[in-house]
């Protein structure tokens, strides 16, 4: 395992900390890669079933590396506009802003701008959780940690998309429902362990249903309904549950479940 000793200032003065390198990152990324590969096959199948080309899906997975964002994005693209796609993806992935801010405090002193960009590119729930286990995170370690998960997520998407193209219509057609099922699955772990999150999720569902069934708003496109419902539910949730009453309320809050991906 490649490591480097870095001095970290603390209450007791400078203390040497072993900062793992690229090789250690590769090793730690293996379990994440296996999980991503499995889930992305289903994503590729479902997206191909509603008409997305294999190359486009491969580029999407390689450049986004966000299961929840991609699930939501593909659903919006199927019946929305580019503006709706951008806003929906921004809202779904906004949590990465907070993760990146937290992670920036653990980066090795002197990390270059390029190194920070490399680390930022690979921020996902699972990779972030692993990096939190280190007092100091090197850009090389982050690069190694994300290398196999990126490969697993992208290759799994390709496998699923290719399989979706060769499967008969009777089998590939119903796969489109997987997008909604898998996006729901990414929310379930947080809903089960946090009452505030469960309430906000329920509020979003109610808001979405009202927007769809109320005659005055039923004409709004699906993508905008998602955006409006998300903003309304988030605003009400922030009012009902201010700081200190959120996810887990304490120990273990930094640990995340495996997003059926990510």
From TrEMBL:
Entry GO CC: plasma membrane
Localization annotation: Cell membrane
Record's keyword terms, sorted: Cell membrane, Membrane, Transmembrane, Transmembrane helix, Transport
Residues passing through the membrane, by range: 34-59, 71-98, 141-163, 175-191, 198-216, 222-241
Membrane disposition: Multi-pass membrane protein
GO biological process: L-valine transmembrane transport
Taxonomy, superkingdom: Bacteria
Main location (coarse class): membrane
Family designation: Belongs to the AzlC family.
PANTHER family: INNER MEMBRANE PROTEIN YGAZ
Protein name: AzlC family ABC transporter permease
Phylogenetic classification of the source organism: Bacteria, Bacillati, Actinomycetota, Actinomycetes, Mycobacteriales
């Amino acid at each position: 395992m490649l490591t480097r000793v870095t001095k970290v200032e603390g209450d007791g003065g400078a203390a040497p900390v072993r900062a793992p390198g690229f090789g250690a990152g590769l090793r730690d990324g293996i379990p994440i890669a296996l999980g991503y590969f499995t889930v992305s096959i289903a994503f590729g199948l479902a997206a191909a079933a509603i008409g997305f080309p294999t190359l486009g899906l491969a580029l999407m997975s390689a450049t986004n590396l966000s299961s929840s964002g991609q699930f939501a994005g593909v659903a919006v693209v199927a019946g929305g506009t580019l503006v709706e796609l951008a806003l929906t993806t921004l809202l779904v992935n906004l949590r990465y802003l907070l993760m990146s801010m937290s992670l920036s405090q653990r980066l090795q002193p002197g990390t270059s701008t390029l190194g920070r960009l490399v680390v930022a590119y690979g921020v996902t729930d699972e990779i972030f959780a692993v990096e939190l286990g280190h007092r100091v995170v090197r850009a090389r370690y982050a690069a190694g940690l994300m290398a196999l998960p990126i490969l697993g997520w992208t290759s799994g998407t390709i496998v699923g998309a290719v399989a979706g193209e060769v499967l008969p219509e009777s089998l590939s057609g119903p796969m489109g429902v997987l997008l909604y099922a898998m996006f729901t699955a990414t929310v379930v772990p947080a809903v089960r362990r946090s009452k505030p999150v469960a309430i906000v999720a329920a509020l979003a569902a109610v808001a979405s249903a009202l927007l769809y069934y109320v005659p005055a708003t039923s004409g709004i496109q699906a993508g905008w309904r998602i955006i409006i419902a998300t903003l309304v539910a988030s605003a009400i949730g922030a009012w009902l549950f201010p700081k200190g009453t959120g996810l887990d309320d304490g120990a273990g809050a930094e640990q995340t479940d495996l997003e059926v991906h990510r």
